[in-house]
Amino acid sequence: RGCPAAMEAREPLRDVRGALRAVLARLREGEPSEGREPFELPRFWDALGQTFQITSQEATKLSLAFSRPPLPSAEDCQKLSEDVQNAILAVATVYYWLPKGQGTTLRKMVRDATTEVVEGMIQLTDTILNASVESLSQEQLISTGGVWEACEQVSNLPRDNQAAVVSALAACLGVVKDAVEEMEHALVEGQDPYGDIMEDEELGFRGNRDTYWSEADRQLLSSCMGLMKASKACLKKVLAAVKAHGKADSPEQIAQLDDLADIANEISPSVDELALSMYPPVNPLAVRLNAAKLASVLKKVLEIAKTSHVCPPSEEGWVQFLTGAVDHNMNKVKNFTQGQL
Fold it and tell me: Boundaries of each Cyclin-D1-binding protein 1-like C-terminal domain copy (predicted)?
């Protein structure tokens, strides 16, 4: 672990690591103050960008100081440690300026980015504290790069709640698209859902109900596919409407966008649950329950969209159409499972 002098020189870094861990814990659970009025978004972004940039520079300075002998003196290490701590405290302080009223979706994204910077800096101090030799290790390079990357994230953050909700909806849509494609692939006529894993000769003949879909299963599953496709269409349309009409100018608009993002977040887990229950052996009741759960989430999304500012009269057609599609497929699921009740 190097000579005692080296350990002593690093001592201030231990205190910094403790302080950064405390900041991280507060960020993870903390609610910001509602104070600091009047709040101005452009000023907030300038300040946040600056604090991220300064943190990136401090990470570089710290890393360079410990990259080759001679190690910094205890005094220099104290100074470096204070600078790192001040940079991170500034990052957290600016994050806390952002009031909830600017949108919870936006806040969560900014908080995630802020948390990543603090985690990166903790990782870097860890690496330096654990380094046994006085040379630049691969880990230290990676940790330093990690802080740089985390600090660069600030330029990719959505600038208001409308942009934040667009980005959240796009992410949901990506996940649901993948789930739909996977299920379509598995359902291809005559294809065996377990074909890839059940090729084993020793298992012998597989005429067993647990590994294939019966004709009745396939009928039921086609209506489930209808619901999954409606989920994809729903997210696509809501995303387009938020892009076209979404605004973050008033508290009401901001809150409506958050409501949409919150309910849309429930679509993908509900699609996954339904998809899982569709694999053989099919339990029709489990399928029906999961289908009903997804249908109700979709109806809620459509309802919230319809009553919000993102749906002017020009958007009413698809809302009505998709509401009908959800009901139609859900009714078919109910009919196919009626005998099971």
Answer: 199-303
